[in-house]
Amino acid sequence: MTKGEPKILKSGTTTVGIICKDGVVLAAEKKSTIGYLVASKESEKIYPLEDHIAMTTAGAEGDAQILARYMKAELKLFSIQNKRKISVRGAATLLANILQGSKIFPFYVQLILAGYDDSGPSIFTLDPIGGTEEEKKFFSTGSGSPIALGVLESDYKDGISVAEGVKLAIKAIKAAIERDIASGGKAIDVATITKEGIKITRHEL
C-alpha cells in the first residue's frame, strides 16, 4: 500500500431489523469482503449485548467487534450498578454517545440496535457519528439495503408476528444476496427478541 492510498478494510454488508407485534426480528447474511476479495463466508453480524438487546453491524468488521465488546461491558456495568437492566432506548443513547465521542476518528459502521423491554419491541438505527433514529416498522443497513428495503416496503404489514417477521427478513436478505455483489455467505443468521429473551438461528442457503 502506497502513502496516501486508502486502507482496505474487512467489511460486512446487509442486515435487516423488523418490528413485530410480539417482538423484534434481526437478520444478516454472513459474507465479508476486503476490496474484491471474499474475506469470509461466515462473518458474525448479529451481536447479543444483553439478554434483551442485540445489535447488527454493517461496515468495518474490526470497528463493529470492538463496539460490541464495549457495549456488552457497559450494559453489564449498568445492571450491576443500578440493579436493573437498561432500557433499549437507554442502550441506544449510550451507543450514540460513544459514537459521537469518537467522531474525529469515527467507527466505520452502520448499526441497528433492537430489543424488547417494558415498553415492548423497539428498533434504533445509528450512523457512524451517533445520529439516532427510532424505526417504527423496519430498517436495513449495508450495501444490499436498497434491495432489502424494497422487499420490506412491499411485504411488511402492521401487526406482523415474529414468525411472519422471520420469513420476511429471510426473503429480504435473500433478495439482497441475489443482486448485491458484497452480500452472500453460506447462511443467514436470524435473531428473534421477545419477552422470553434472544434466540439466534441459522438458515442455510
Task: Please characterize this protein's 3D structure.
With 205 residues, the chain is α+β, with helices and mostly antiparallel strands. The chain has a single domain, classed as 4-Layer Sandwich (Glutamine Phosphoribosylpyrophosphate, subunit 1, domain 1), CATH 3.60.20. The chain contains four helices and 13 strands. The strands form two sheets. Strands 1, 4, 5, 6, 7, 8, 9 and 10 form an eight-stranded antiparallel beta sheet that branches. The protein has a five-stranded antiparallel beta sheet with strand order 11-2-3-12-13, with helices on one face. A hairpin with a 5-residue loop joins strand 9 and strand 10. Helix 3 runs antiparallel to helix 4. It is globular. The protein starts with 9 loop residues before the first strand and ends with a strand. The N terminus is likely disordered.
